[in-house]
Amino acid sequence: MAEIHCCWKDVDRLVFFFTLCFGIGSWITINGLWVELPSIVPHVPEGWTLPSYLSVIGQIANIGPITVTLIHFFAPGKLKDTVAAYGIIGIGAISCILLSFTWDTTGYIGGSEHSVALLVLVFFTSLADCTSSVVFIPFMSVYKPVYMTALYIGEGMSGLFPGFVALGQGVGQSSCQNVTKFNQTINMTYYEMEMVYEGLNFPVRDFFFFLCGMMVISGIGFTMLNFLPHCKKEQIQPKPKSPSVVSMPYVDSTFPTPAHALRNTTNSTDISTYSVLYEDAHLDRSLSQSAQSDTTDKQDVQEENFAKLSIETKAYLLLIIGVLSFAGNGLLSSTSTYSSLPYGEKHIISPSRSVTSQIQWRA
């Protein structure tokens, strides 16, 4: 407990906040799209098969992280994490803007009507979100390990914020209404209960504007982490490459030594007082450098411990991560709509239809 308290005591709140904002942009576009599905599905030709399309597109978008990994492997240092992060945030923001105007635009593919604009732009948002996993974390590795927690909290909020906004939008609210229909083939009039979705508090377009705004906030947080001098103070300073180089004690030129400052002073009290102040200032500087050195040493120990793991252990860990990613991002997301449907629209309508449906024959 004391170690945890000491760890959080060294956290800079401003840097923590910027890191949290940066992490929000990792998966917010895809998470937002999933919570908005009940408002999108009634207006697209795919209907409730749309989640399956989204899952397939999301898996295809994994070409992004694969490409980044191959670039780092075959051309180390050619792809800068900063450039890649700005590209991810830019693609996500632009895709959300385009979705706000074209999400219900349809076209024909193979003789069938599809939401062409929606599916294409979902691919780009998925490409950005999937690639963020292999770009954001390496960028944060230059900061103290404690700020990785803020990044993960931001990733969690990328699903929380869209959910709250969707609830405020009134997504999924519906009611059953008795509708009169006529079948010309058999000359029959019948009544049927249908699910009617109630009006939203604000349209789908505004929801995509919200997602774009969150991507902009993520970009601002990343910019602050990348360029703000205050944030750079929390970065881990690399060790000298040559072990033969001996670092000299820090001497602050703005704080002169007692001998230099009191050159013309003969009062022993002034000399003694100034010497104490001088020693306190250098003690604070030494403690700060010592704390930073301890953080660097801890990271080196973690890297050494990981390097000591056997190939079998590393393969096992990668396999577990792959299975969890497949289950969470592929299997469950694509089948959840079908497994939940019996408890939704069909379940509500069917009993009512058997009771209230009436058939009248026309002359």
UniProtKB/TrEMBL annotation:
It is a multi-pass membrane protein. Keywords: Cell membrane, Membrane, Transmembrane, Transmembrane helix, Transport. One of its GO terms (molecular function) is riboflavin transmembrane transporter activity. GO terms for cellular component: plasma membrane. The keyword Transport applies. The keyword Mitochondrion does not apply. It is found in: Cell membrane. It catalyses: riboflavin(in) = riboflavin(out). It comes from the Eukaryota. The chain crosses the membrane at residues 14-34, 54-75, 82-103, 115-139, 146-165, 207-228, 315-332. Plasma membrane transporter mediating the uptake by cells of the water soluble vitamin B2/riboflavin that plays a key role in biochemical oxidation-reduction reactions of the carbohydrate, lipid, and amino acid metabolism. Belongs to the riboflavin transporter family. PANTHER family: RIBOFLAVIN TRANSPORTER, SOLUTE CARRIER FAMILY 52. This is Riboflavin transporter. The lineage of its organism: Eukaryota, Metazoa, Spiralia, Lophotrochozoa, Mollusca.
